[in-house]
Amino acid sequence: MFMPKRVVISNNLWVTTELAELYEQDEYEKVYVRELVLHLLFLIITTTMVAGSASPSNYYHHMYFQNFFTESPFNSSTGVNMTFHDIFLIGDVWAYLDQVMLNSFYWDKWYENLEPESNRPKVPKTKIYDNILLGVPRLRQVR
To answer: 70: which of 6, 63, 84, 112 fits an S-S bond (Cβ 3.0–4.6 Å)?
Structure first.
């Protein structure tokens, strides 16, 4: 059976714990601690880069759209004026999707209720003045 020579390897930065298992216990522990420190350093750098790349205005942008979609009133299937948080029946879900979501994604007018100026023929329900609704939006249940 092949027995490796007992050598000191703690000075080599690129030795992994798999290689260090072949050597003495104290060398293995040094390599293990070195790997732990390198992994923690990588985790800290990666977390800092990800968290630092977020703009402070992202929070306000998110809150604007959350309030826009959840606080917009609509008439429920029973004729009651509701918001997203008041939905209880499936008919209310469809009323919300039809009156709030669909009208929010596909606009007929610009801001201040001005008609869009365009040389192309008027197509109803456009989103951000460029996207065109070609068919009926459908919800798909994936199992």
So the answer is: 84
